User: Which sequence fits this backbone?
C-alpha cells in the first residue's frame, strides 16, 4: 500500500529531475541557436574585412584579439611565477591557504569593480581610454583566474616527482624549471586559454578603460573597439543595418570563446591520456 | 659552477615569491584605493545620504539604497529561479543518468559557463524582454518588458552552468557506498537522494549556491541590458530595477564632473567588492573547515 | 526461515564474466561463509542476492535467484520488499549523515514499521538493536550525536544495528571486519555469533581463520565457479577438490 506510494513518489521525483535538466538544456540550446541564427546571415567576409566606418566589425575583432592577447601575456608574467611560489615545495601550508583566500577574493570580485579601480588610476595618472589601459585592466581580471588554474596544474603533479628529483640532487629552482614546468605544461596551457577566453568575453572592465572607436587600433595609446562592446553599443541603435553588426559580433565572439574552450579541453584530455 | 646553480635557484625563488607578493599587493591596493576614494562619502553626515534612497546627483543626493535593493532583488530572484533547477538537474545527473550522459554533459557545462555575458544580454533583449512584455499584457500589467523579471531570468540562465557544475562535482564526491547502504535498506532512489545524498552534500551545495550568489551580484552587462535601469525601489516583477553594477557602468562618465559623485560611486564599488569578496571568502573557509572535519 | 536457491546464475560486467553458471541451495539459518581468493566473485555473488548489482551500469545477470520461491530477477518483482527482507552490512561502515539514533531508525521509518510508530516505541527499538549489535553501552548517552563521530569499530557495529532494525530475515555481510582493528574484530564476530540462531547470515570473508571461527556452512568459489560447499566441519577437515585443498593449505590466496 504505502510501498506503491513510495514508488510513485520516486517516479515523480525522477520526472522532476529529468524535467529540470531538460528545461535548462532547452533554454541553452535556444540561446545558442538564436545567436547563431541571427548572426550567421550577417557574418560575411565583407563584414569581417571592413572596419566600423565601412559597416564591418574588423575593428572590434582586431581590438578584442589585441586586448586578449596583450592582457593574457601580461597576466601570465604574474600568474605563472605566483603559481610556482604556491607549490608545496615553496609555500608552507599557512601561506598557501592565505593565498587561496586572497585569490578567491580577487576571483569573486566583479569585473566592473576592476574597471572602476583602473579608471581611478587612469584619472590619477592622466591617461585617456586606450588599448594600453584596456590591456592592463583586463590583465587584472585575468590574474586570479589564471593563477588559480595554474596552481591546480602544479598541484596535480605527483609528489614523487619532487622526491625523485630532489634525491638526484637538483635544486628547487632546477626542479621547477626543468621538471615541474614541463610536466605541468598542458595544464598551464589550459589555464592560459581559460583566462584568455574569460577575458575576451569580458566587457564590464574595459567599458571605462579601453573606450570605443570605429577604427582599427593604430597605437597602444589609441582607444580600441572590442567585440563585446560592439554588441553592447550597436544593439542599442535603432538602425537595423548597424544592429546587424551587433549580431555578427555576438556570433563571432561566441565562436571565439567556444573555440578556445574546446581547444583547451582537447589539450587537457590529450595530456591526461599521455600521463599515467 | 656550484655557485651558479645556487644563484639560479635563489633567482627563481625571489621571482616567484615576488609575483605572489604582487598578487597579495593587488588585493590590498584594490581594497584600499576604493576605500580611500569612497572616504569623502563615509563621514557621518554623508553616510546618511548614502543610506538614503534619493538619487539626484545634481542636487547632491547620492542615496544608494535603491541600487542595493535592485542588486539584491535581481540576484535573489535569479538564484530562486536557477538554484532549484540546478539542484534537480545535478541530482538527475548524479543519481540516475548513465555515465555516458554525464560524460557528455560535463563538457557542455564548461562551454556554457564560458559564454560571455553580452551574449546573454543580447538573448535577453531579443527574447526575454519581449516575452516578459507579452506576459505583462496577458496579465494586464503595464510593462515595457525591461524589468526585474527579465533581469532575473537572464541572470538565472547565466548562473546555471556554474552552479550546476559545482553542485554536480559535490554530489559526485558523495561516496557510492553511502548510496548502497541506503538502497540496501530498501530506500527508493529518491529517498536515498533526499535523505542521504543531499544531506551528506549540504555544505558543499551551500558553497555552490553562495559562489553563484557572489557571481550574480556583481554581474553587469547582461543584467544592465534588460533590467530597465530606473532608480526606483523595485516593487513589482514587471517594474524596472537598477542594480549597483549597472549604476557604476552607466554613470562613470559623469563621475568627475559632479562634486562628491566620485565618492558615492566608489562607495558603490566598495560595496560590491566587499559583498562578493566576503561571500566568496566565507564560502572557502566553510569548505575548508568541512574538509578538516571530514 | 527464508530459503535461498540460486539457479544457473551468470554475472558479467561488460564482456568480463565474473560468475559463471552457479547452482546452489543455501541452507537455512546459521552463518554461511563464502570463501575464495580475491577477485573470485564473492562480493558479486553477495550483491546479486539483494540486487545491489543493479547499481552498476554495464552489469548483466542471467539465471534466477529464488528467495522463498520467488525469483527476485523476475520482471516486476518488488525490489523494496526484497531489500527489506535481506539486510546488508558493507565492508566499510558509511554512517548516514544523521545522529546515531536516526541511523538506526532510518530504515524502519522508511518502511513505516510498527516498531517506530511513535517516539517511545522508536527509542525502545533503537535501544534493542544497539544492544544486539553490542554498541548500546558505549553510545547510550550520546544518541543525538552525529554518527560520524564514532570510531570505525563502533561505526561498523552501528551499521549492523541499522541493518537489524529493518527486521530482515537474511543478513549479507561483505568482509565486515576487514577495516577494523583486532579488538573491534572480536566484538563484531561475537555479535555475528549471537545472530546465528535467528537469521541466515551470509558472510563473505577472505580470512580463513575467521571462517573457521564462525562458519556453520562454507561455500568456496574459485574464478567465478562454485568449487565446493558443505558443512564447515566436512569442508575444513575433508575437502574433496584439489583447489580447495590448495586454498586451505595457503597455496592460493
Assistant:
Amino acid at each position: 500500500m504505502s510501498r506503491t506510494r513510495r514508488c510513485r513518489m520516486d517516479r515523480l521525483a525522477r520526472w522532476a529531475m529529468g524535467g529540470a535538466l531538460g528545461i535548462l538544456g532547452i533554454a541553452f540550446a535556444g540561446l545558442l541557436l538564436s545567436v547563431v541564427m541571427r548572426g550567421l546571415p550577417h557574418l560575411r567576409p565583407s563584414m569581417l574585412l571592413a572596419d566600423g566606418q565601412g559597416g564591418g566589425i574588423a575593428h572590434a575583432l582586431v581590438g578584442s584579439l589585441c586586448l586578449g592577447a596583450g592582457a593574457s601575456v601580461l597576466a601570465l608574467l604574474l600568474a605563472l611565477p605566483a603559481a610556482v611560489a604556491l607549490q608545496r615545495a615553496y609555500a608552507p601550508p599557512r601561506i598557501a591557504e592565505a593565498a587561496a583566500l586572497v585569490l578567491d577574493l580577487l576571483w569573486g570580485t566583479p569585473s566592473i569593480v576592476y574597471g572602476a579601480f583602473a579608471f581611478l588610476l587612469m584619472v590619477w595618472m592622466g591617461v585617456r581610454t586606450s588599448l594600453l589601459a584596456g590591456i592592463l585592466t583586463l590583465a587584472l581580471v585575468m590574474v586570479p583566474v589564471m593563477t588559480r588554474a595554474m596552481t591546480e596544474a602544479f598541484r596535480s603533479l605527483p609528489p614523487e616527482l619532487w622526491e625523485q628529483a630532489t634525491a638526484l640532487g637538483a635544486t628547487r629552482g632546477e626542479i621547477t624549471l626543468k621538471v615541474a614546468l614541463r610536466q605541468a605544461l598542458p595544464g598551464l596551457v589550459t589555464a592560459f586559454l581559460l583566462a584568455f577566453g574569460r577575458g575576451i568575453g569580458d566587457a564590464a572592465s574595459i567599458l571605462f578603460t579601453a573606450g570605443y572607436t570605429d577604427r582599427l587600433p593604430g597605437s597602444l595609446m589609441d582607444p580600441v573597439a572590442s567585440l563585446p562592446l560592439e554588441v553592447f553599443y550597436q544593439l542599442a541603435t535603432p538602425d537595423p543595418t548597424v544592429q546587424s553588426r551587433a549580431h555578427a559580433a555576438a556570433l563571432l565572439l561566441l565562436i571565439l570563446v567556444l573555440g578556445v574552450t574546446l581547444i583547451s579541453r582537447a589539450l587537457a584530455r590529450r595530456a591526461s591520456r599521455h600521463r599515467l | 659552477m656550484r655557485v651558479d646553480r645556487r644563484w639560479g635557484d635563489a633567482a627563481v625563488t625571489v621571482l616567484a615569491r615576488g609575483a605572489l607578493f604582487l598578487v597579495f599587493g593587488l588585493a590590498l591596493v584594490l581594497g584600499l584605493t576604493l576605500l580611500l576614494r569612497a572616504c569623502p562619502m563615509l563621514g557621518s553626515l554623508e553616510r546618511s545620504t548614502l543610506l538614503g534612497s534619493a538619487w539626484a546627483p545634481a542636487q547632491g543626493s547620492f542615496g544608494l539604497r535603491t541600487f542595493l535593493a535592485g542588486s539584491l532583488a535581481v540576484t535573489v530572484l535569479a538564484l530562486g529561479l536557477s538554484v532549484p533547477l540546478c539542484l534537480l538537474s545535478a541530482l538527475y545527473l548524479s543519481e540516475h543518468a548513465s555515465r555516458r550522459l554525464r560524460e557528455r554533459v560535463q563538457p557542455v557545462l564548461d562551454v556554457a559557463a564560458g559564454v560571455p555575458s553580452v551574449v546573454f544580454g543580447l538573448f535577453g533583449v531579443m527574447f526575454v524582454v519581449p516575452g516578459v512584455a507579452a506576459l505583462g499584457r496577458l496579465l494586464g500589467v503595464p510593462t515595457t518588458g525591461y524589468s526585474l523579471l527579465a533581469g532575473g531570468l537572464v541572470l538565472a540562465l547565466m548562473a546555471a552552468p556554474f552552479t550546476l557544475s559545482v553542485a554536480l562535482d559535490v554530489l559526485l564526491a558523495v561516496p557510492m557506498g553511502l548510496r548502497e547502504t541506503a538502497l540496501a535498506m530498501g530506500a527508493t532512489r529518491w529517498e536515498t537522494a533526499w535523505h542521504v545524498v543531499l544531506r551528506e552534500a549540504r555544505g558543499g551545495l551551500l558553497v555552490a549556491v553562495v559562489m553563484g550568489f557572489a557571481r550574480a551580484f556583481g554581474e553587469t552587462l547582461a543584467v544592465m541590458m534588460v533590467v530597465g535601469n530606473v532608480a526606483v525601489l523595485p516593487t513589482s516583477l514587471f517594474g524596472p530595477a537598477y542594480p549597483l553594477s549597472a549604476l557604476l557602468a552607466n554613470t562613470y562618465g559623469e563621475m568627475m564632473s559632479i562634486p562628491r559623485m566620485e565618492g558615492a560611486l566608489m562607495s558603490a564599488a566598495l560595496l560590491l567588492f566587499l559583498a562578493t569578496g566576503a561571500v566568496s571568502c566565507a564560502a572557502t573557509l566553510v569548505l575548508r573547515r568541512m574538509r578538516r572535519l571530514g | 526461515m527464508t530459503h535461498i536457491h540460486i539457479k544457473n546464475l551468470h554475472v558479467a560486467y561488460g564482456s568480463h564474466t565474473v560468475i559463471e553458471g552457479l547452482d546452489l541451495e543455501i541452507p537455512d539459518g546459521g552463518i554461511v561463509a563464502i570463501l575464495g581468493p580475491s577477485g573470485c566473485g564473492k562480493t558479486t555473488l553477495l550483491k546479486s542476492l539483494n540486487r545491489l548489482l543493479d547499481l552498476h551500469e554495464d552489469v548483466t545477470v542471467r539465471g534466477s535467484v529464488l528467495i522463498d520461491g520467488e525469483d527476485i530477477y523476475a520482471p516486476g518483482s518488488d525490489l523494496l520488499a526484497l531489500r527489506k527482507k535481506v539486510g546488508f552490512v558493507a565492508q566499510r561502515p558509511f554512517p548516514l549523515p544523521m545522529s546515531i539514533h536516526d541511523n538506526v531508525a532510518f530504515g524502519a521509518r522508511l518502511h513505516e514499521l510498527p516498531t517506530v510508530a511513535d517516539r517511545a516505541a522508536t527509542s525502545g527499538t533503537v535501544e534493542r538493536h544497539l544492544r544486539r549489535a553490542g554498541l548500546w553501552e558505549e553510545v547510550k548517552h550520546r544518541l543525538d550525536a552525529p554518527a560520524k563521530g564514532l570510531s570505525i569499530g563502533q561505526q561498523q557495529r552501528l551499521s549492523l544495528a541499522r541493518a537489524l532494525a529493518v527486521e530482515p530475515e537474511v543478513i549479507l555481510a561483505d568482509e565486515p571486519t576487514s577495516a577494523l582493528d583486532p579488538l573491534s574484530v572480536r566484538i563484531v564476530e561475537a555479535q555475528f555469533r549471537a545472530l546465528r540462531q535467528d537469521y541466515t547470515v551470509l558472510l563473505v570473508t577472505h580470512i580463513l581463520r575467521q571462517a573457521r571461527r564462525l562458519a556453520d556452512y562454507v561455500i568456496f568459489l574459485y574464478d567465478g565457479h562454485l568449487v565446493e560447499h558443505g558443512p564447515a566441519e566436512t569442508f575444513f577437515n575433508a575437502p574433496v577438490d584439489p583447489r580447495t585443498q590448495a586454498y586451505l593449505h595457503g597455496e592460493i590466496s
